[in-house]
Write a structure and sequence with these properties.
The complex is a heterodimer of chains A (about 475) and B (about 100). By secondary structure, chain A is of the alpha/beta class. In chain A, about 35% of the residues lie in helices and about 15% in strands. Chain B is mainly alpha-helical. In chain B, strands 1-2 form a two-stranded antiparallel sheet. The chains are: A alpha/beta (about 475), B mainly alpha (about 100).
Chain lengths: ~475, ~100
Amino acid sequence: MSNFTLAQLSQELQAKKISSVELTQTYLERIKRLDPGLNSFVTVTAERALTQARVADTQRAAGKGGPLTGIPLAQKDIFCTQGVKTTCGSRMLDNFIAPYNATVVEKLDAAGMVMLGKTNMDEFAMGSSNETSFFGAVKNPWNTAKVPGGSSGGSAAAVAAGLAPAATGTDTGGSIRQPAALCGITGIKPTYGRVSRYGMIAFASSLDQGGPMTRTAADAALMLNAMAGFDVRDSTSVNREVPDYTKTLNDSLKGLRIGLPKEYFSAGLDPKVAQVIQDAIAEYKKLGAEVIDISLPNSQLAVPAYYVIAPAECSSNLARFDGVRYGYRCANPHNLEDLYKRSRGEGFGAEVKRRIMIGTYVLSAGYYDAYYIKAQRVRRLMTQDFVEAFKKVDVIMGPTAPSVAFGIGEKTDDPVTMYLSDIYTIAVNLAGLPGMSLPAGFVDNLPVGLQMIGNYFDEARMLNVAHKFQQATDWHTRIPAAFK
Amino acid sequence: MSDLKQTDIEKIAHLARLALDANDVPVYAQNLTNILHLVEQMAVVDTTHIEPLAHPLPMSQRLRPDVVTAGDEHALFQRIAPQVEGGLYLVPKVIE
């Protein structure tokens, strides 16, 4: 049952073949037995889960509840959960019991989903390998010597290993899509503003967006139905109707125009990964899609612009961690400045400190125009590239990551090498567009993700395009041998 | 090309209120220099007449009626504070 989709679990519950309590116990038992080898959870909330499961069973028995009622999930430890430790992968918040729930948590609770626990992540979502977590690296279920990707690496590993049927993730520069690709699952980063950021601990506020991480596109549609929507508590939430994403899943792809940016298939891409992507595109042609070569001429500037904008926003957002109101405080501070400096110096890990310092530098007098304003100008150019492309095509496709999962420790010495693993995902966040990764094949027994980029608020079409591929292929049904 | 020296790192760390271990400063100087070299690749494109883009969606701030929406939750929030007394957050003495 651990390889069932949300849709299948929903049917099982509806048909009373299993109760939510039994289902929850099954997953809790798997976490207990298998997670010591993966480290995908920071906190397991067994008691809370069983309480929620009992409520769900009562609801279903009374003929109430929706399709997700009683189905377990894992929450990325970046979403505030009232009364439950919310660490964001950091020593800074190792003792932080959130006093309120994130909107995403509230909505998924209201949909009747059962929270199994909080998943491990790169510290403050800054990383592409899950190695920057204060709670240790997460391992890839396909090969435990490899990284699961990041920053939502715990969520991706948990779903891939069948420790949870679904999980939440957040994506600032690729943090849903890249780990989804490296672990062989489906993940969608919605359009900026589609899912509330309230209670989602901020890294870079103009880029961060939460989304579902699941086995299939149909499951992502089910979950996005519950997650998306306007929220008055998030000033950047978009007040726009949420369609039923499951309604259009089976629409025909005849005449769909797929754009292939030449820049996404150039140097730096593993040729074996490129072949898998070409095979996936060939499959889409069989489904009736038309393939059009396009150009996103400023693509090579995505990573440089991102590493100005994201650190700048991070240095402002993380200024709130001061050792005064919550979180880590150093021992015996001898004055206020010492309290700030040592609480932050001891509470944050090296990657977070690097990004805070880069951000501080690019925002400081004398450098602001040369770096920060320059990056914002580049951001507009890149966004315009996408706007032009979407005049000619319906979706854009390419690889999610330039290679399959790399080895744990392989890229930790040089931050710049690590940053380049998000080369294909970052531009999507800068433009605020929706992006997705779906399983497309394997290289050296490790999963490859196909990235799909959609136009603003076109998630329904993307999920449709992904679902049709998953009806025609079985890559998304593969399960790592050790976790069957 | 900007190459950051150890004294630059010390200055930035002070601005960011970060205490660094002295042994780590040379490593940060090298890391941050590499990152700046990466971001300086932006120079290849002329952006003279391009307006900066701060936010992905063209949106303005919503306004709401100026009424109190939250209750007094200081006890709830102070329960997770490192040090409080009499409803106040405690910090080292600022004025001698």
